[in-house]
Amino acid sequence: MVRKILSVVIPRFPDGTPIQRMMENRGFLLLAEKTLYAIFNSKRVNAMVAPFIIGILPSPGAVLIAAPIVENSAGNHLEIEEKAFVASHFRHISESFLPTYSSILLALRLGNINTSKFVFYMIPMVILLFLLGYFFYIKKIPKEEYVKDNINKINETKKLMKYLWPIILVITLILGFRLPVYYATIITIMIFAIIGKFKILELIPMLKTSFELKLILSTITIMIFSKFISYVGIINKLPTYFNKLDIAPIYIFVIIFMISTLMAGSQATIALVIPLAFATIPSGGIPLMILLMCITYITMQISPTHICLAVVTEHFNITFIELFKKTFFIFIIFTISSFAYFFLLTKII
């Protein structure tokens, strides 16, 4: 088991954090924020769109790239805990449906579900996630009182791509060349170092601050715990226990997905439970996949095994419970909505 744990833990470093430090050093994040503001003239949009775009990068360090933009956009209008939620919430929306994430690809493969159809039918739930984040927190950020004139949107969009090219390159390497995140990150760091004309003396302190011991230890602890839960077979035993309940299989699997995701994370849950769910409910198809993926996604946002939550709470210097409180009602609303959408899909598909 130790060998398996190390094989998963070691490739996690480096993640997106060194790129964040390099982008900050060259002013790319600040310039990207200003350009995004020039395009939309809205700090509300900045706080939502920037984390979402950055979140396409499947790395725990991506939330650290989004955090400064959220902090600058929100100013004093949001509490620290609310800023942490906004950075985490909008950064993770892409993780609910985009096939840049291995968990999505794994689930679709195990359930034999078409990727395009899954993405299409997930769009209403993605919109709901944006709306929930907006009405609970983003709306607290005041609207702009004026509109800038003579702004060339096309030129500003080109500038935005220029400032975000390291993130775009990582995503391209992952999607286009099927490289693991850590390989794509290392290649991008090397190219960025050359193009950005970084000196060795500049890079050393940035790389050092990217590998924070406390964060690394937290990450390793979380991963060891989730791997231990999977290794001892607790997840495999859950269906046996819940099958004794006199309720429909769909509710049983939702409960299993919630408990399993809380204990072992989404990856292990998907790998172990998706095949069983589709074997038990062979006619489930898209509606079943949408429901289970929505449940595992939203449960990950309150799961202590979610590495990104450890990263974001550490960055904003808040506790997990404080972040949990800001997420709880959205968790409830999204869960109920997932059931409603599931029953709707069973009628129309």
Describe this structure in words.
- The protein has helices at 2-9, 17-25, 28-40, 43-54, 62-74, 80-92, 102-111, 115-136, 153-163, 165-177, 181-195, 200-210, 213-231, 234-242, 249-264, 266-280, 285-300, 307-316, 320-348.
- The chain is mainly alpha-helical and 349 residues long.
- The protein has one domain (2-348).
- Helix 8 (115-136) crosses helix 19.
- It is globular and about 60 Å long.
- Mean pLDDT is 83; it is low at 1-15.
Topology:
Elements: H1 2-9, H2 17-25, H3 28-40, H4 43-54, H5 62-74, H6 80-92, H7 102-111, H8 115-136, H9 153-163, H10 165-177, H11 181-195, H12 200-210, H13 213-231, H14 234-242, H15 249-264, H16 266-280, H17 285-300, H18 307-316, H19 320-348
Q: What does the average pLDDT come to?
A: 83
* Fraction of helical residues: over 70%
Radius of gyration: 21 Å
Regions with little confidence, pLDDT below 50 for 5+ residues: 1-15
Count of DSSP E strands?
0
- Share in β-strands: under 5%
**Ends apart, CA distance between termini:** 43 Å
Shape: globular
The helix-and-strand class reads mainly alpha
Largest sheet: none
Please trace the helix and strand order, writing H or E for each element: HHHHHHHHHHHHHHHHHHH
Estimate nothing, just give the exact number of structural domains.
1
Number of helices: 19
Short description:
The protein has helices at 2-9, 17-25, 28-40, 43-54, 62-74, 80-92, 102-111, 115-136, 153-163, 165-177, 181-195, 200-210, 213-231, 234-242, 249-264, 266-280, 285-300, 307-316, 320-348. It is mainly alpha-helical.
